[in-house]
Amino acid sequence: MDAQVRISVQEADFDLTAEYAALRHGEQIGAIVSFCGLVRGWDGGVAMRLEHYPGMTERALLQIAHQAQARWPLTGITIIHRVGELHPGAQIVLVLTASAHRRAAYQANEFIMDYLKTEAPFWKQEVDATGGHWVDARETDQRARQRWEAEYDG
Amino acid sequence: MKTLELRYFARLRDALGCQAERVDVPADIDTPRQLIAWLRQRGGAWDSELSGQRPFRVAINQDMSQLDDPIPPGAEVAIFPPVTGG
């Protein structure tokens, strides 16, 4: 079954309830898993600036959604990522996965986030009173993604 | 010679002081590895930032690529730091 896929990279905030309602239709869905990422505050933190690569970012997110679809029987996928200047506590990313079964929805959701963090061209800059500071990529995010490759090979 | 559209993002763009440029490169530059070596000849930040001491990624026509992938003529080649979204 082809999943309903919605990808959006936007400055505007998103509405979990509306996005959930958009995926919840038909009688074949048994589970919808939602993940909301928020901007975590830090000492002296004023804002987080999110940059992306227009065109490629949307493409990369679509490819990730297609990979998830190939691995799990999903009826719907929504990926929304915000860009621009966001303040601590703000919503930054939303991933919804719908499936007939809970396990597929849970696993696909985590897979999408792990790939998004290592494959989709977004860059974070932390802003404090002294200016902007680019955030370095984390090794733990790489390992989280590689875990799925190992499972696939095995 | 062949023409390439180069794009730089995030920390790398700031360090290089360049967001985008159209360049004519020698015809025998076929891969990101060769392109990087060519850009490093500019010296300064180009040499230090692209030396490999700090990791970077390359995309060809908006697909993540490896250093030895072929670059088609007229391609858009982007160079950027490892991604940090989510």
UniProtKB/TrEMBL annotation, chain A:
Pathway: Cofactor biosynthesis; molybdopterin biosynthesis. CDD domains: MoaE (cd00756). Pfam families: MoaE (PF02391). Its EC number is 2.8.1.12. The keyword Hydrolase does not apply. GO terms for molecular function: molybdopterin synthase activity. It catalyses: 2 [molybdopterin-synthase sulfur-carrier protein]-C-terminal-Gly-aminoethanethioate + cyclic pyranopterin phosphate + H2O = molybdopterin + 2 [molybdopterin-synthase sulfur-carrier protein]-C-terminal Gly-Gly + 2 H(+). One of its GO terms (biological process) is Mo-molybdopterin cofactor biosynthetic process. Keywords: Molybdenum cofactor biosynthesis, Transferase. It is an enzyme of class 2 (transferase). PANTHER family: MOLYBDOPTERIN SYNTHASE RELATED. Belongs to the MoaE family. Heterotetramer of 2 MoaD subunits and 2 MoaE subunits. Also stable as homodimer. The enzyme changes between these two forms during catalysis. This is Molybdopterin synthase catalytic subunit. It comes from Amantichitinum ursilacus. The gene is moaE.
UniProtKB/TrEMBL annotation, chain B:
The gene is moaD. This is Molybdopterin synthase sulfur carrier subunit. It comes from Amantichitinum ursilacus. It holds the Pfam family ThiS. InterPro entries: Beta-grasp_dom_sf, Mopterin_synth/thiamin_S_b, ThiS/MoaD-like.
